[in-house]
Amino acid sequence: MTAAFTCSKTFSGYPCCHRQWRHSGHCRFVHGYSRSFSFWFRAGSLDENGFVVDFSSLSALEAQLAEQFDHTFLVNADDPQLATWRDLHAQGALDLRVMDNVGMEASAKLVWGWANALLHERDGGRSCCWKTEARENMKNAACYEELPEWFRG
User: Fold this and answer.
1) Cα(102)–Cα(20) distance, rounded to whole angstroms?
2) Is 142 exposed, middle or buried (0-12, 13-18, 19+ CB in 10 A)?
3) Sequential DSSP letters for 22-80
C-alpha cells in the first residue's frame, strides 16, 4: 500500500430500533440502540486547507445518517411483518425505514457507500473513505473496509 494521510470522524446519537426476524434468540424482537458511525478517510495528498477531508464539509453525510437512523424503525425488506410495520408507519406510530439488511455489518457497508459517493463527486478521487464502523453500543460494533475502485490514492 502506498503512503497516505488518514483521519477519522465519528457521528453519534442516532436512536433507532430494529429486529432480526430470522434470529432464533432475543434479537428477533424489536429492540433499540443509539447508533454511532465512524468513518476513516484516506488521501495521497492534502487539500488546499491541509486536510484529508474537511469535516465541516460532511453535513450532507450527517443529514443522510439522521434521515435513516434518527428515531426510526429499521426492518429488512423481507420481514414477514412488513405490512404491519407499513400500517403502523401510516398511522404515525413509527418512522419506518426498509433496508436490505438492518444488521450492523450491512449498515457499515451502506454508510461506506454514502461517504464515498459524496467524496468521489466532490474530490474526484483525491480522497476516499476506506473503513467504516457501525456501533450499536459500547460493546458491539461492526466494520466494513474497502478501497473504492476509483480511488487514485
Assistant:
1) 7
2) middle
3) T-SSGGGS-EEEEEEEEEEEEESS--TTS-SS-GGG-HHHHHHHHHHHTTEEEEETT-T
Amino acid at 145: E
CATH of the domain at 39: 3.30.479.10
DSSP-derived pairing of the beta strands 72-76 and 96-99: parallel
Residue 152 lies in a domain: no
Report, in angstroms and rounded to the nearest whole number, the Rg of the chain calculated over CA atoms. 17
Per-residue pLDDT tens over the stretch 21-65: 999 999 999 999 999 999 999 999 999 999 999 999 999 999 999
Helix (H) or strand (E) holding 143: strand 141-145
State the pTM of this model.
Answer: 0.95
